[in-house]
Amino acid sequence: METQKNKKEELLIKLEGIFENCGKRAAHYDANNLFFQEDFDELKEAGYLLIAVPEEFGGFGMKLDECTALTRKLAYHAAPTAVALNMHIYWTGLVADLWRGGDSSIQWLLEEAGKGKVFAAGHGESGNDSPGIYSTCKAEKVEGGYKFTGHKMFGSLTPVWDYLGFHGQDNSDPDNPMVIHAFMPRDTENYEIKKTWDDVLGMRATRSDDTILNGVFVPDELIVRKLPTGFKGMDGFVLGIFCWALMGFANVYHGLAQHVLDLVLEKLPKKKSISFDRPSMAYNGVIQHDVGEMVMEMESIAPQLDTVAREWSEGKDYGPAWGVKIVAAKCRSVEGSWRVVDKAMDIMGGYGLLHKAGFERLFRDARLGKIHPANGYLSREFLAKAMMGIDADEQPR
Question: Does the keyword Transmembrane apply (predicted)?
Answer without folding.
Answer: yes
